[in-house]
Design goal:
310 residues; 5-stranded parallel beta sheet; 12 helices; elongated
Length: 310
Amino acid sequence: MNIVCVESLGIGRERFESLKAHYAAMGHQFIYYMDRREDEGTLAERMREADVVAVSNIKLTAGVLSQCPNLKYLSVAFTGLDHIDLAYCHEHGIQVQNAAGYSTTAVSELAVGMMLDLLRNILTLSEQMHQGGSRGTFLGRELRGKTVGIVGTGAIGIATIRLLLAFGAKVIAWSRTERPEVKAMGVEYASLEELLKKSDIVSLHVPLCDATRGLIGERELALMKPTALLVNTARGPVCDIAAVGKALVENRIAGAAFDVFEHEPPLPLDHLLLSTNRCLVTPHIAFATEESFAARADIVFGHIDQWLQQ
């Protein structure tokens, strides 16, 4: 089998060389690339002879996949699969497997970190200090005692709930599937409408699918308190980003934090979420920690090993 890792996946050459020896001992060829290229021409060239491909969140269209006649298995170093043409894969018998769970801790920690920054203006005040400023009359708000609405109680939503409860926040939740372990933590489920009305902070943790695309739009934002905060570490299109930008500019919600957008950063300088200083933005880093990338590599190549042994 020809196994190709089309990008570095955040791991070093030493780890790749170890994997190369591992697969050679099993009678397979392993090729890896230390750079990330997203243009279809380069991707097709790298994948053309592959039976197995490891890739993260680089978009793989039918145009690329159709140039890979030997491809049988995709080990995706990412939780979501919306960047893969799954219909093409299904039609052509290409098995696709994600790396669920590798970034649960990383994403939940960033979500809570964003909440703390929005409440305490940490980044803004740091910038002011670097310019010779001081606190002035600024007063922050505490996370303790706030009602936080968790939208989606999968693994990341549950991990975020545990952190919030440790801070002394009150948590309510909405999800398409209600989980007994969430209820066991004393968290009540509510309708999405009720959650939006009651929450001081709304944190999104749903996958992107037809049912969740545009889940938070004009109508939903209108239900939120004018003092409420919105945090999105899930997927950009879960929100109507134009509606969020408008709500921020018009002071209909107090602030927002986004790690995900309609497309991967960099964003155009005239992007709506960059037009207000009340939106904290990070360049899709929630999943990206040293610990999560090491765990991700274990999962991705463990999946390949399992598939090869079938």
